[in-house]
Amino acid sequence: MTRIYVPIDSSALSLGAERTARAIAAEATKRGVQVDIVRNGSRGLFWLEPLVEVETAQGRIAYGPVQAKDVAGLFDAGLLDGKAHALCLGPTEAIPYLKKQERLTFARVGITDPLSIDDYVAHDGYKGLQNAVAMSGADVVKAVTDSGLRGRGGAAFPTGIKWNTVLGAQADQKYIVCNADEGDSGTFSDRMLMEGDPYCLIEGMTIAGIAVGATQGYIYLRSEYPHAFRTLAEAIRRARAAGYLGADVLGSGKAFELEVRMGAGAYVCGEETSLLESLEGKRGVVRFKPPLPALQGLFGRPTVINNVMSLASVPVILDRGATFYRDFGVGRSRGTLPFQLTGNLRHGGLVEKAFGVTLRELLYDYGGGSASGRPIRAVQVGGPLGAYVPESQFDVPLDYEAYAAMQAMVGHGGLVAFDDTVDLAQMARYAMEFCAIESCGKCTPCRIGSTRGVEVIDRIIANEDRGRNIALLQSLCDTMLAGSLCALGGMAPYPVLSALNHFPEDFGIDQSAAA
Amino acid sequence: MTAVHSSPTQPAARDTLARVQAIADAHRDLPGALLPILHAVQNEIGHVPDGAVPLIAQVLNLSRAEVHGVISFYHHFRTEAPGRHVVQVCRAEACQSVGAMALEAHAKKALGCDYHQTSADNAVTLEPVYCLGNCACGPSIRVDDEIVGRVDAARFDDVIGELRDGPRSTT
Description:
The complex is a heterodimer of chains A (about 525) and B (about 170).
Chain A: E1 2-5, H1 10-14, H2 17-31, E2 35-38, E3 52-56, E4 59-63, H3 71-77, E5 88-91, H4 96-99, H5 117-122, H6 127-133, H7 137-147, H8 159-168, E6 175-180, H9 189-196, H10 198-212, E7 216-221, H11 226-241, E8 257-262, H12 272-279, E9 303-307, H13 308-312, H14 314-320, H15 322-326, E10 329-330, E11 333-334, E12 336-343, E13 349-354, H16 359-366, E14 376-381, E15 388-390, H17 400-405, E16 414-419, H18 424-438, H19 444-461, H20 466-483, H21 487-491, H22 493-502, H23 511-514
Parallel strand pairs in A: 1-2, 6-7, 6-9, 7-8, 12-16
Antiparallel strand pairs in A: 1-3, 3-4, 4-5, 10-11, 12-13, 14-15, 14-16
Helix pairs in contact in A: 6-10, 6-14, 7-8, 7-10, 9-10, 9-11, 18-19, 18-22, 19-20, 20-22
Chain B: H1 13-27, H2 34-45, H3 52-60, H4 64-73, E1 85-90, H5 93-96, H6 100-111, E2 117-118, E3 124-129, E4 141-143, E5 146-148, H7 153-165
Parallel strand pairs in B: 1-3
Antiparallel strand pairs in B: 1-4, 2-3, 4-5
Helix pairs in contact in B: 1-2, 1-3, 3-4
């Protein structure tokens, strides 16, 4: 029986993968041939989705984009034997976009059946946990520390140090919380992994629990990801049935339980203390720090709270060793980051590379330039709180420190490309508008400042006393940067100031007036 | 669990509140039960009716103000019944870079309503959304639980046409 892969990833579905899968099943039935259709995750080559793969003696052969209307013709051409066709892309692994990547965290995504534990184990899954249960908690934490892994949600705090604080805390109950509130525009790596390789996240959380002595985990998932919710819930059920979760994880005598909880459409709940409030059933209002969540987190107990990518990077570290992981990357940015190439790009998708790659490589060597064919003028890196990066900075290596030095941030690795039709004054206005809509309201600089920011930018655009209003905007941004309680108000000025500093002409001013 | 709205026939108000009571009772011992309860109520009924607030407050030993505060804090929860379908248009940056603002204007015009409103034929409630995680395939919309990518004005009209004519067969 021929095995055919048709992705069940949300983005593939958004481009017609469900219809394609049904058309393949119907066509096979019509021709009286047996096919085994596996609904895999996406390879992350979204301009080729729905990307159909056929398993042949020569390996997996890719076709794409395959719409339902193409299916009969593909069967005629010999799809089941991997024969030539206008949509044939050759062996999947040989596609340059994939071949040039360094996939550690995404090693299995698109390759395996997301819900099959057997498939997961056959592709090195649960090796990390097997190692971890034979180690002391302190040794597991040390491995994570030595790997150099830093928080992939955006703040880049060393993961091992966070774990060590929780390990050392004394409490009757500790928690592992996964921040899966991936609200940044231009990001989808968490979603792809949760839909395409959910056991990887589950394994990472289980290792964290075993290491620090936490017996309960929660995945806080945004409500915009209904497919990921279903996949995670089913994967957790299967992992429990197979003994990878529950009272006695892998016979270690250690317990770890896991539950997925749905957020409710609040961007600020991606901020860790706001997320904890939400998990407790309250308004997602930011908490003061200290106390740190590592000491007083969920329900006041010591809590490891990490992003999906951070936790999903743990299994490979425990499997291959801290040194293996640390050998990727540059400076203090170790390992790899799954970059998400989005917006106005010909070849949008997921590119996992070691830190140190440049924006220019990602935008042109992978992304193929703009989708519109016009010059790329600005790239917002790191989500709605990230800076707009002009072309003059496209060659700066992507590493946390190099980006911080130019008042930008790598964040969660999302890149949104804009061509030369973009109006950066409007994008700056949008940044303030978004902050106003999503502010939790606890601190004044964010709650009031964002609304005043929209008004001031409107006056600048309308050329009302422009010089004074630009000075006012800069002062307002300074107040928000220095006086906000969390990153929402504290970083919303980044896109605004980068737009103003790098693209002053969009605000109706010349370079000297913005300096 | 995840359906935004399952377009049920509107049960009588008393039956509705009996369902809210049953849902709240079933979840009362869950740590941090309020959001799971509100999700379950909205999934089943389509919104969180006003009468639900005191019932949930009593079960969880909270004040009505606390329950109301949570409902109003989160964009996802609604206190009015939506149309037969909920359509969200993404207006975040990645979709803006490929024409989301033009799509937004078209959507409002085509449906004859603004955000947070329902078309006159009750087919569609229009909502904004800030990222659907489909950023390499924008502009994106969400129709109930399905994401649709690369939506231009013509594709939007096709999708809405299918919603108005009846249940969609495929995505």
